[in-house]
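Input:
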Amino acid sequence: MIENLVLSSADAVPAVSTAAQWSWLVVAIPLASAGLLLVLGSVADKWGHLVGVAASAAAFVVGLWTFIDLLSRPVVERAQDVAVFDWISGPLDLDVGLRVDQLSLAFVLLVTFVGTLIHIYSVAYMAHDPDRRRFFAYLNLFVAAMLLLVMADSYVVLFIGWEGVGLASYLLIGFWNQREEYAVAAKKAFIANRVGDVGMLIAMMIMFSELGSLRMDEVLGAAESMSATTATLIGLALLLAACGKSAQFPLQSWLGDAMAGPTPVSALIHAATMVTAGVYLVVRSGPIFEQAPGARLAVLIVGAITLLYGAIVGCAKDDMKKALAASTMSQIGYMMLAAGLGPVGAVFAIMHLLTHGFFKAGLFLGAGSVMHAMADQVDMRRFGALDKVMKVTWLTFMMGWLAILGVPPFAGFFSKDKIIEQAFVAPAGQLWQGWVFGLVALLGAGITAFYMSRLFFLVFYGKARWTDGQHPHESPALMTVPMMILALGSVFLGLVLTMIKFDDYLAPALVEGHHGEPVVNAYVIMGTTLALVVVGAWIAWVKFGSAKANVPVLPPAADGLVRAARADLYQDTVNNALLVRPGQALVRVATQTDDQVVDGAVRGLAWLLQGVGALVARVQNGYARSYAATMLAGVILLVAIVLAGRM
Amino acid sequence: MSVMAYLILASVLFTIGAVTVLVRRNSIVVFMGVELMLNAANLAFLAFSRMWGDFAGQLAAFFVMVVAAAEVVVGLAIIVALFRTRRTVSVDDENLLRH
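Output:
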């Protein structure tokens, strides 16, 4: 039935290629698998994970087919809108459709490829979990929702995917919800995301009231004729949505706690894919931001703040996963910053997103492997000297580490360095912007080098500080092979993307932009960045890696900044004081009003009726004689009335 | 004798019957009160029948008597049944209908 609809609508619009027509399978296969695994229940416990892996791999194959087909088309015809089915018709006309273009397919390939690797990894990682089937069902649900999000051709369909990934993220963070703090972390993530979703809804409402459409081609096509105010409002609302999903300042607080989920979840959802949805949204809505310099500046500021914020928090965290989460936040800050720079930066935002998807997923899988070896311990002060016992994990982790540091020729160098360089480009007449954002990005690179090296050295070098009775061992091949593949990506992806001229490939899907010159020479920037990276890594080596470094097992007393960073720069305290406590007070007032005024009225009425009833009930005493007397009195009354009427 | 005398007698009888029903506890006596009220009505029927020279009133009195006889049969049977199960004929003890 769906095929028929596709075919019939394909006749009307310019020819859509066969591969594109079938691209809905990319979403449908993992969705069907998720449904199957959830519906079948424990029947599928034995083979559920295989179905999950197969569904993800099948989605990758379909995605790859579509991608190859896209490459075979002339550049101007590469973007295709595929109608899938009519959802709502009438005054509100909503068709569910997919947009197959350079940008969406870059995401599809990232999500399905990294997703499949993480599925494979999870088979071993979750092998001893009784709920492995449910885990794979949720993972597939996530993949389906994420693909719907990136392939949507209208903001409504995008919103469905947007909520879908939020749901999957909630379910997976709280996967071990028998631990109360994990369940709380899941709820925290869900609620923080809800705040962002309000922004998404507001943006859609403004679009619909201004343009009467939510289709991306129509909205983005009409962006040029939008007034600056409208565009700024939409842009800011979209930025709020992006902040929620991508854990950007000021909605960043949930990401650290989201590490409560199983490590593959952290790798897939909270590092490689879902948290980058905000960047995707900003890049996809580029034409709107082009019209709204104010909103673009807001994106830049949010990105700059978050990249420093995450980096500072990352320096002080002893929990391996939380340090990586802070790093993710910081790296997405880089992407946001780049996305805010306009089309020229957006290319590198997406490129960094792809390379980051590989190396950060690899780092997380490495972290999972270490945790697997150390009986689920996450305190890095309890690691050390793991390089000898976990050679594969150590080497793959090293690739990821070099990649995130931006050491040439590893992947991060090609993407992050470009972002830093672009951050130094100042718009005409706004020279300060180039300096401020450029220096922030530069400083961020130095701090990144420090905290990632600290993490790497704490885990793999120095003296063994293991708790008693631990016998670390290398993980099984099902886990190490995905790590190796991701490590390969961490090494070569940046180089490959640069060689195949990824920016030229992606450019048609973005707004046209003009290259500007950075305020300082590009080579100076590159040199300074590398110098800062080396300095950061060297400090980390001296303090945490070298043989002389003495790492205390318990976090030592520290000055204010470190204490603040350990407490996530007091984000929870601030949120509690500003939002949670006033919110709770409001709720208390509301419940009291409800209890005393609304319910009070109802209870009062009930009390009144009961009293009247009790009075009346006395008449019903069960004595036949009193009933007879009542009857007699009634008859006498009636006769009297009749007689009185006669007179 | 004028009709009035009969009517006064009928009202007196009816009142006695009604008071009996309301005041006495023994259900057999209550029953007798009911009969007294019926017969007071019968007396009024007959007096009016005589006054108008119309037999319809007498006919009505016959109907009342027949119905009263039938009612006595059923009523006494109920009282006997009640007495057998509850060892009392007091109407005030039979207040279960309240519940």
